[in-house]
Amino acid sequence: MELNEITQASQNYDENQIQVLEGLEAVRKRPGMYIASTGPKGLHHLVYEIVDNAIDEALAGFCDRIDVEILPGDIVCVTDNGRGIPVGIEHKTGLPAVTVVFTILHAGGKFGGGGYKVSGGLHGVGASVVNALSEWLEVEVYHEGTTYYQKFERGHAVTELMEKCATDRTGTRVRFKPDPEIFRESTVFDFETLQTRLREQAFLNAGVNICLSDKRNPAEPVEDSFCYHGGISSFVEYINKKRAVELIHPDVMYFSCAAADGNSTAEVAMQYTDSYTELMLSFANNIHTTDGGTHEEGFKRALTRVMNDYARKYNILKDNDKNLSGDDVREGLTVIISVKLKDAQFESQTKGRLGNTEMGTLVNGLIGDKFAAYLEENPATARAIFDKALAAARAREAARKARELVRRKSVLENAALPGKLADCQSRDPEETEIYIVEGDSAGGSAKGGRDRKFQAILPLWGKMLNVEKARLDKVYGNEKLMPVVTALGCGIGDEFDLSKLRYGKIIIMADADVDGSHIRTLLLTFFFRFMKPLVEEGHIYLAQPPLFRITKGNKHHYAYTDGERDRIMEELGGQGYEIQRYKGLGEMDAEQLWETTMNPETRIMLRVEVEDAAAADEAFTVLMGDKVEPRREFIEKNARYAELDV
Ligand code: 1YM
């Protein structure tokens, strides 16, 4: 078909295009309603949407290889070896099906065979949304010996579907350039972000081969490929290797089932480690359900029940013993739950929670039958798991006693707030901040420099606890951490209550050296382990003190990076200035500290964000080893994930 050749189909095409464009204009007007954001998250989301369609084709059994290439100019090219998106005319619109897929919202999965969509956050509207938000997008379909091609710009078709050269392959290729008018912050893809997500998808879809390559720098192409025949069992192995933990039993347990009506499946892979924390990742239709939902609840209920039934049956728990709690039986557990279902209902604002009640029943039944049978058939593994759970129960009891002791003591002393806390006047967490500062001298400057209306200062002293290697009961006795707990006012562990938080922003202020990075990491680990919602809800910040002061005449300039220092030196004309390198916060007087690090009008802060539970947990676990270097790397990496906040 030539470009200017007018066919019956293309006449209809013009008419239909009007309605089509209205749909996609809506996407461009309010991208936030269709993708996570127009920041880096949303940018990467575009790739996932296209890849999801290829994964659906793999799940349907027609495709076993997916290539994702990042090309120069941050163009992304996704290719699969499936059947190819249908090119036949779709009767309602008179347009080729592939054109409809890319130009009509809510088109995906509605036709072309009636199969249901399994993957994808947008349930099939993905391709058109990606198209709407791309400066241009090209699709090639390889089907029955012919290559079909169509090009779009910002959602508008700029060619019809054309036949191009002959081919002996089959499949679909989508090439697109995200629109910088939409993604104003950046259109640069992060290799690691894509790598993590594609690896995860390869784990969740056993046997699919996904290859990622970065060809932006032709001199230095980077490549990684993922194919896991072990599926989510391989995922658990991978995570536990990364977590650097000891295994309680050698094999990953794997259980799967399908619902009687054939509408859904459930899979669980799990393994106990000697860690004190659980790591649960759940997925529904390959979407990470960050807020859990029915599948997680069904799992937890069944696990606690099966463990207690077994412990009673074999007299591991005596008549007078209390039942094991859910936290006890999940301590140290790494578990992946993956369900696939026809009509997934997602709840909660972020759509990260599965709502289908039948999935609770399905997973509950799966664990109730198969995990119970596993324990019966593997007594040695069962023994090891119960030793772990009983130890957790004892520690929980010790923590309860320690907590009561602390409470009683504070009632007696009638001093709930720590003595070294310089509190602020306001009681409104919407405006209050607490600076947690290592060392008394920096604490002194901070107290002198702060705005006491809304800024509180808590200097830290004493010996820090390695929280990674300690359970809750140890925290209660720690002289360094308890003042933090009492100052924040929201409790820890099971008792944590975000509504009691006394300060909206918790700002860790430490030197830009190795010791400072140590204290930052320890505090971040502490918050992550025992006050996780603080991290998840974005209450934790890292202060960014300047590294240099450059003085010329009586004017001071502050530089926060080496690059900035060089730029300022250049601007000052290369001479007649004096550079001071700050070794620590203590070298700044109160006024300088306010001006550079604490004044909300001028300061730079990093907000700590947890992108991905597995990655964060890995980071925290790896970090708390004895090596300093990986810690520093973490801080730097974390700072990249964190967003700038003034
Ligand atoms: C690089 C992206 O989109 N592959 C892909 C998409 C489809 C099919 C095959 C497909 C699906 C069906 C039948 C079906 C899609 N088709 C549609 C629709 N790769 C990529 N590969 N034949 C081919 O679902 O029955 C939407 S996506 F709607 F046109 F069928």
TrEMBL record:
It holds the Pfam family HATPase_c. Its EC number is 5.6.2.2. Transmembrane segments: none annotated. The keyword Lyase does not apply. Mg(2+) 1 binds at residues 438, 511. Coiled coil: none annotated. The record marks 463, 466 as: Interaction with DNA. Heterotetramer composed of ParC and ParE. This is DNA gyrase subunit B.
